[in-house]
Input
Amino acid sequence: MNNALNLLQPYPFEKLRALLAGAVPPADKRAISLSIGEPKHTSPAFVAQAMADNLDKMAVYPTTLGLPALREAIAQWCERRFDVPAGWLDAARHVLPVTGTREALFAFTQTVVQRDVDGLVVSPNPFYQIYEGAALLAGAQPHYLPCLAENGFNPDFDAVSAETWQRCQILFLCSPGNPTGALVPLATLKKLIALADEHDFVIAADECYSELYFDEEAPPPGLLTACAQLGRSDFKRCVVFHSLSKRSNLPGLRSGFVAGDAEILKAFLLYRTYHGCAMPVQTQLASIAAWNDEAHVRTNRDLYRAKFDAVLDILAPVLDVQRPDGSFYLWPKVPMDDAQFTRELFASQHVTVVPGSYLSREVDGFNPGAQRVRLALVAPLAECIEAAGRIREFVQQR
Output
């Protein structure tokens, strides 16, 4: 067996199940889960129709590179969304369809990490646990940068040593962040690109929440925006990851893409050819329909905006909680140990949240997720309002 498997920590939800084991919630309160970040809004009917219209394509082997029409649709979406000049993104070289960002983030790390050096994979802390697992199984050492309130819940990149940057092989960004919802500012992205050039590492920007924001007149910038403003038409050392899961309420479609540096994607394509994870043709055709439409995405944002407005009105008087820059998470500070809060909330109110310490790692005796919990506002509006009311009642009783 691969000895590196012994280095993997339990997933947060495995730890959550153990935490709640034996707790008996009140029978007169229905269960409301704010724990798993699984979109619950209705999937677009026209995407389902596109899938149904092409079920005969199940008889066709898909290629790892994907259909030219899908890569073109993705490249054009990136141009529109991130102000990339027309023609900069060559759909044949700069875009690769993937079966969801989770799979892609893991496989990408196996492609990029050089095993014969003392390399680091640097990530925010708290973080999406796949970054850590991918690093360990690729033979690299995870390195965690704390995301604290005093720094807008972003890492303090200025505090990172030159020695750390020199050992860095991949810098993972998550913007807007999971679980904090914080956006990495455009100026910071440009600064990080300069550091990547200086120290020769790859920036892997996980932007799967990029389409969940509040101001329709100010879509958040991404790594491709920074490249465009810097005149970086080769996207050197820069790769972005996007998905239809959150944008289009299609988590079961398992459809996303990776875009950026053509040389890196050439190597990534080679890895994926052996990995054997090509997207089915009918899924690709349904994905084209999704990337070409924005009306359903705006409707999706409206639904989340209403939930944030309602829940924040209820929780702000009793908890230290702020509206994030984006995503569908709240990251409140709680008045006790976060695991204790989670278990007692469940036992008292039948509401499930995730302890922040389960989404973070302790470094030098400090866990930046401690005394915080993650609330995923994915349930219907009425359920989110009811859950917020129960949480408020629980806090007030405490």
The longest strand covers residues 168-174.
